[in-house]
Amino acid sequence: MNKSNKLKLTQAFPRLLHANKETNTFFIECGDGWYDLIYKLCSDIEEVLTANCTTDDDWPHALQVKEKFGGLRFYISRSHKNAVSMPAPGLVEVRPISDVDAIGDLIEAAEAKSFDICEDCSAPGKLYQESWWHVKCDACEAIYRKKREEFLKG
Ligand SMILES: [Zn+2]
After folding, report:
1. Which of 64, 74, 108, 142 is spaced 20 to 30 A from 14 at the CA atom?
2. Phi-psi sector, 62: left (phi>0), alpha (psi -120 to 50), beta
3. How far is the CA of 33 from the centre of ligand 1 (A)?
4. Ordered per-residue pLDDT tens for the chain, 154 residues
């Protein structure tokens, strides 16, 4: 993903996507075609967290966002506080995220969707299960194949 898109996502969801101090962005290892998909997923996750009155301290954060076996992978932390149901004396009540399953479902749905979206340009795509699995539209696949042929010819 290009720097500008990474920066846009990091700035839109700073609690979910912790910026690296050197780059000011969260490192995302996939193509720009999935920008909208990731943006929507982060936005949906934050909606669930907001509905559960999650505190900033207890906000889960993404550990890794990348492409694997052709599809999107979105790994998220689970704060230990999520399991706390009884507040200790003197502490502000921390509500457990009752919708942790809902977050898991959102991630699963977005990951499934990525198999139909070209990772390069976001047009409808399909999964090519070759030596390197990838999801591309017809146009991007044609470009990829041409480059690959040229590379193999040397
Ligand atoms: Zn494409």
Report:
1. 108
2. beta
3. 7
4. 999 999 999 999 999 999 999 999 999 999 999 999 999 999 999 998 888 767 777 788 888 999 999 999 998 876 544 433 344 444 444 444 445 678 888 999 999 999 999 999 999 999 999 888 999 999 999 999 999 899 999 8
Give 92 Cα–ligand 1 centroid separation in angstroms: 49
Kindly list the domain boundaries of the chain, sorted by start residue: 3-117
C-alpha 88 to ligand 1 mean position (Å): 53
| pTM for this model (two decimals) | 0.84
CA of 137 to the centre of ligand 1 (A): 4
CA 80 to chain centre: 21
Q: Which two tokens stand for residue 2?
A: 């290009």
